[in-house]
Amino acid sequence: MALVDVSRLPHHVAVIMDGNGRWARAQGRIRTDGHAEGSHAVRRVVRAARRLGVRALTLYAFSEQNWNRPRVEVDTLMELLRDYLLRERAELLEHGIRLRAIGRRDKLPARVREVLDPLERDTAALDGMVLSLALSYGGREEIVDSVRALAAQVAAGRLAPDAIDEPTLASEMPSLSVGPVDLLIRTGGEQRISNFLLWGSAYAELYFTDTLWPAFDAPDLYGAVAAFQQRDRRFGRVPSDVGGYAGPLAPHGLPQAGE
Q1: Is 18 a catalytic residue?
Q2: pLDDT by residue (tens digit) across 8-36?
Q3: Mind listing the domains of the chain with CATH numbers?
Q4: Rounded CA gap, 143 and 181, in Å?
Q5: Helix, strand, or coil here: 53?
Q6: Of residues 33, 66, 83, 195, which has the active-site annotation?
Q7: Per the residue annotation, which of 5, 18, 122, 210 is the catalytic one?
Q8: Smaller CB count within 10 Å for the chain: N or C?
C-alpha cells in the first residue's frame, strides 16, 4: 500500500468513475450490474477519503451527455442514485459529511430530487468533508450557465461589464465553492477529462489508472494521493527549490499566499 503524508493532502479530489460497463462485461454480467457494483465503490472511496482527511471530494456521477444513453440504463442509474442517497443518509450525518449536488439538477426525476433535496438541507451545516455529486453535469454547461447569470446581472444594471474578471466568473460556478481541483483521478484506462470540471481543473494534477471503477478501493485512492504528492506544482512558475507538493490553490485558481 502506498505511503501518504497526511500533512500534505490535496484539498479537493475529483473522480471520473469510469469502467462500470467493461467491468460487468468482464464478469459476464449486464451493464446495469456494473453500475450497481460501482455504487459500492462510491461508498468505499467516500469512506477512505474521509478517513484520510480529504476536505472536498467531487464524483462525476451522471453527465449531461449521459441522458443520451438507453432509457433503461438511465432509469437504472437514477434508481441506483436514489437508493444510494437513502442508504448513505445515516452515515453522512454520523460523520459530518456535507452532501451537495452540482449540475442541471432540475432535469433529475422527481423521485431523486425528493430524496436529494432534504439530504442536502439536513447536511448543509455539517463541517466535515464536502461530498459533491456531479449530476446532469457538464463543464462547458457550467461555464455557459455562469456566463448567463453574469449577463443577466449586466442587463439588470447590477454589474458593469468591465467588472467581470476570472474571480467574478468563478464565483458563479457551484463546483468551485469548495475550491479548484487539486487532484483529478480517472479510472478505467481512458486518458481524457470528458467535460468534467473544466474551469476548476485548470491546474489539477491528473492521475489515470487502468483499474475499473467497481474494483477501485481505498489502496487505489491512497496510491493516487501518493503520486500527487510527488508532483512539482509550479502554476507557471519556475521549478521549486524543494520540488514535490506546492500546496492547494486558492478559490480563484491561483496559488494561496505563501505558497
Answers
A1: yes
A2: 999 999 999 999 999 999 999 999 999 99
A3: 10-143+181-228 (3.40.1180.10)
A4: 16
A5: coil
A6: 66
A7: 18
A8: N
